[in-house]
């Protein structure tokens, strides 16, 4: 029994050790390295703010802010599309089938992300599927060119890439809401919009925020989407860091990565203070 108890404790410690080894320590090292001095092929120990000054006083910072705007738009669109799906599955689909329905949203992720994003180019292109439908139905008289190689293309790519995550987070938060709450709302005569605004959204706020943070951080950090769908003018933090690595400016890449880490930590702290993100684990208890 003592051996089994020790093994059980070890199993609980493994995830914590994994997070410390592969997230906390690399994050701390990234912050430390961001103050190092650049050399010809690597960097050397020191303390300098040159990488941060270089980032905030150049066009990189403006591109970073624009990528935050685009990511914020993607979060709003994902919420408008994805959260009602989570609510519908929770309210209308039997519990035995709810998780099977959500499994359908996982299937696209069985394909490589690069392939999934690249497959949008023939769909959104000038002679692609979307333009063919618009032309055949007479909605437009000539092909629409702003679907691809524009910020709109980046937003579309972010939405299609990360939409399932707000569905999962929303559904997880909704599982903590007993179904009799919806029945009580109906008995009191509350309309669907009022239920959604005054009951569902406040109760599911932790899940909505968690899904939104995931989409936002990936939107400003995923270099694939702007590189494939955004064209030469679309740049985000991930692409800027990639370009810095290619240019062998590793301290700049570390500084950008550190800014991303600080952004994530700040958002999680704000979300926990406002919505108590630990409520997401309530269905598991």
From TrEMBL:
GO BP: any one term: transmembrane transport
Pfam family, one: BPD_transp_1
Subcellular location: Cell membrane
Bilayer topology annotation: Multi-pass membrane protein
Keywords annotated in UniProt: Cell membrane, Membrane, Transmembrane, Transmembrane helix, Transport
Organism of provenance: Acuticoccus sediminis
Keyword Lyase applies: no
Keyword Transmembrane among record annotations: yes
UniProt protein name: ABC transporter permease
UniProt cross-references to InterPro entries, sorted A to Z: MetI-like, MetI-like_sf
Signal peptide: none
Segments crossing the lipid bilayer: 12-36, 64-89, 101-124, 144-172, 199-220, 240-270
ABC transmembrane type-1 domain mapped to chain residues: 64-271
Superkingdom of this protein's organism: Bacteria
UniProt xrefs under PROSITE patterns: ABC_TM1
Family: Belongs to the binding-protein-dependent transport system permease family. CysTW subfamily.
Gene Ontology CC terms, in alphabetical order: plasma membrane
């Amino acid at each position: 029994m003592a051996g089994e108890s020790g093994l059980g404790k070890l199993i609980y410690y493994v995830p914590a050790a994994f997070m410390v080894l592969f997230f906390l320590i690399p994050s701390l090292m990234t912050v430390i390295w961001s103050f190092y001095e650049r050399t010809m092929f690597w960097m050397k120990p020191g303390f300098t703010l040159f990488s941060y000054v270089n980032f905030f006083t150049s066009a990189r910072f403006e591109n970073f802010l624009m990528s935050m705007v685009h990511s914020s738009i993607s979060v709003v669109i994902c919420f408008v599309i994805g959260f009602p799906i989570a609510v519908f599955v929770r309210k209308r689909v039997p519990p035995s089938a709810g998780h099977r329905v959500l499994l359908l949203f996982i299937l696209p992720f069985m394909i490589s992300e690069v392939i999934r994003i690249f497959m949008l180019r023939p769909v959104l292109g000038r002679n692609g599927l979307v333009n063919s439908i618009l032309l055949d139905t007479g909605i437009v008289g000539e092909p629409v060119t702003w679907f691809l190689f524009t910020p709109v293309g980046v937003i579309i790519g972010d939405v299609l890439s990360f939409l399932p995550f707000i569905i999962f987070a929303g559904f997880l938060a909704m599982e903590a809401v007993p179904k009799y709450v919806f029945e009580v709302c109906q008995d009191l005569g509350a309309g669907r919009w009022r239920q959604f605004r005054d009951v569902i959204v406040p109760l599911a706020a932790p899940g909505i925020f968690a899904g939104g943070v995931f989409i936002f951080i990936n939107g400003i950090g995923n270099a694939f989407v702007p590189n494939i769908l955004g064209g030469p003018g679309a740049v985000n933090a991930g692409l800027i860091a990639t370009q810095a690595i290619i240019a062998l400016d590793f301290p700049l890449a570390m500084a950008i990565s550190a800014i991303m880490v600080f952004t994530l930590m700040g958002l999680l702290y704000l979300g926990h203070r406002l919505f108590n993100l630990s409520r997401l684990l309530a269905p598991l208890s």
